[in-house]
Amino acid sequence: MSNYRRNITPEVMDEESERRRPSNSKFDAKNYLNVKLADGENEKTLRIRLLPVDKNTDSPFKTIYMHQIKVSPELSKSGWKSYVCLKHTEDIDHDALGYDCPFCEMNKEAYEKKEEAKKNHDEIEEKRWKEISLQNRHQEVCVMRCIERGAEDDGPKFIKTNVRSDKKDLKSLIIELYKLKKQESIDEAMEDNDGVLPKGFVPENILDLDTGRDLMLTISRVFDKEGKPTNKTSISVAPYGKSKPVSKYDDELDEWLNDDKVWSDVFVAKPYEYLSIILDGEVPFYDKTNGKWVSKGRVRDEETKRQIAEENEANDKYRRAKEKALRRDREYEDEDEEEEERPRKKRRDDYDDDDYEERPKKRRRDDDDDLPY
Predict the structure, then answer these.
(1) Which residue has the higher pLDDT, 331 or 290?
(2) What does each C-alpha distance from 286 to 70, 188, 201, 272, 290 come to in angstroms?
(3) Global pTM value
(4) What burial letters (b/e) apply to 284-319, b meaning 16+ CB within 10 Å?
């Protein structure tokens, strides 16, 4: 039986750094790393440790493609939502979801009409179709999997980031940090050895599961020229602490590495029919009677109306429960601020191996389903 264990190797990272950019699961908040700033919050930090993106690869990165679409407030409080592109994304069930993408089809159609308007010197139509084309273009997105320090009991969490041409996205920042620390270790080794690398020298790999380091993410709100806060955020990344294993317990690390969840379980792709309804600016609803997706606004038969009423009632209960959980969260935060001197409960890492018997159960709130994506 093989003892091979997945790891984020230098070979994988070198390949990722040289890679050229190409010209219904149940929701569980614990599956996501929450990088969203709360209302009134201008900055926060998260300490994480990257894992291979799933149990079948050594790479910490997975490239997918998504469309960011303006939607009904019923679907998203912000009015925007991201959907997996069915045409350009691999490793999804195309047979069930479809091979074509309605957003990509609209992008192509709008581009062709823009070009036609340009030939006809119709600037108004050219501008209109250009905007529609841009609104429906696909975006390269990188998915990563990590352990959030302070929330190890949640297990692996997923995070996605749009890949940017200016390389200010999280994936690019991590790759640049990896390359910087690798080169620094090479330079230091040569300086200490008369300009020659010592025999058997291994450059630093800050993402190695055994000898790597945690990463500190800082999410900051962007302010406009007048100093007013916007909905945009920036992110920075820095190494944190000393070199150490992801976990001091091999069984815990193996459990994290072999977790069955993959990115498509968390960022769920929707079928072509569903996306077509979104493209029309409407709200999809699954008609159980006829076994298909329909628009809520076009429902006529009484049975489907009854199903919609039941779903609306369930959604109302869901929102009330979520608001209650958020209020309870704020109460916990207030308690922590008032009782700073209260001794914290011991964590697993506080025990010596010989003294550890049972991991104390950490106080937790109910799941918060306010997904920040």
Answers:
(1) 290
(2) 21, 61, 59, 13, 9
(3) 0.75
(4) bbebeeeeebbbbeeeeeeebeebbeeeeeeeeeee
